[in-house]
Amino acid sequence: MYTINDCVLIRKTGVFPENGIIQTPINGLAYEFGKSTILGDAIYDKLREEYTNPEDLIREGKKYDVYFETYRRTIHFTINGVVADSLYGQFPYPFAIIEPLKHHVDDDSLETLRVEDTYFTDDMKLSDEAIILIPEEEREKLAERYDLTGLNIRTYTGELEQAIKDELQEAGYDFFDVNDHGYRKGLDSGTKDSEMYTFIYEYCQANGIPQKKHFYSDINYEDQQKRMEEAEKMDELHLKYILDSGLVSEEVVKKTNTLLEDRRYYKQEFNELMRQVVDQVGLEKLAELTSEFNQKMINDRELRIMANKEKEPQQTKDKSNKRD
User: Fold this and answer.
1) Closest among 294, 259, 296 to 276, alpha carbons compared
2) What is the pTM of this model?
3) Predicted confidence (pLDDT) per residue in 246-304, tens digit
4) pLDDT by residue (tens digit) across 302-319?
5) Phi–psi pair at 135, nearest 5 degrees
6) How far, in whole angstroms, is CA 160 from its chain's centroid?
7) What is the pairing mode between strands 153-156 and 131-135?
8) DSSP-derived pairing of the beta strands 8-13 and 124-125
9) Which residue has the higher pLDDT, 55 or 152?
């Protein structure tokens, strides 16, 4: 029979937990790239003239994706298994964090406890039992950038999922295959998968812990709305960066700015102007300007992070707040 001591949180990530703290994306000023809501359609129309294969089109289109900050307030884990790639996301990350669930099951920030997606709404301070898995070839580079003192770092070669399995086996935990709905064999009676699945469900029922899926949650809806607003704002700045390059005719710049002021992004006239912008700048130069814009935004982000660190002494948030 399983108990809470048999459960571990597992998180694959591309962000190293500096000072043993996993930050929510919004607190960590995380960023991503996406197709421009303003120039994107015109760019892809032009690309289709040369690329007919969908995979080639997607690969080339990535050159024109625009930076924006990720307004997500949650950090996500699976229980005793590895998050599966799905329609909702792919997770080809180099790092993994393994943390006993017992240290956080009473945290106020625990929003939902599910085997396939347990998430918290605040930064998490890792316990002394946490294991951080990193690629062997990354250790020296990480040691130069971060203070690894006091962190339980384990290196691996090969596949990250196998390294996670090995670590769990060595520590005496069971490992399960996870899909979008839970454990792949979670509903098969008589299996360990079913035992663990049932334990988590009953534990949540007994302790009043929600099991609502993140996809259908209010916080996800609100974060997605904010994400779209941020992306649109960055897309507009990106367009203005292109217009200021001197490669677009004065007539097109003037008409575009007029429509931008009226927030008329989706009118036929505006779409035609965007096609003219792409034609006048050219795809090669547009990719170069987009790269410059993205790097400028990333540099500005780094400066803000440094300013925040200088403004406030490095402090570890008190994560001792527990559920009643």
Assistant:
1) 259
2) 0.82
3) 999 999 999 999 888 876 656 788 999 999 999 999 999 999 999 999 999 999 988 88
4) 888 778 777 765 544 444
5) -65, 140
6) 18
7) parallel
8) unpaired
9) 152
Note whether 98 and 167 are within 8 A (CB). Answer: yes
Tokens representing residue 215 in the block: 């996809």
With beta carbons less than 8 A apart as the criterion, state whether 200 and 114 touch.
yes
- CB 101 within 8 Å of CB 4: yes
Choose among 150, 153, 147: nearest CA to 135. 153
Rounded Cα–Cα distance for residues 44 and 37 (Å) = 12
For CA atoms 154, 160, 166, 172, give the dihedral sign: positive
What are the distances in angstroms from CA 61 to CA 5, 38, 39, 50, 51? 47, 14, 11, 12, 10
> What is the distance between the alpha carbons of residues 234 and 68, in angstroms, rounded to a whole number?
6
pLDDT score recorded for residue 316? 45
* Cα–Cα distance measured from residue 180 to residue 83, given in angstroms and rounded to the nearest whole number: 8
What pLDDT, on the 0 to 100 scale, is given for residue 91?
65
Q: How many residues does the chain have?
A: 324
Q: Which has more pLDDT, 180 or 210?
A: 210
CA distance 89 to 199: 27
Distances (CA, A) of 142 to 17, 21, 75, 146, 298: 11, 15, 22, 6, 20
Amino acid 319: pLDDT: 47
Residue 186 has what pLDDT? Answer: 65
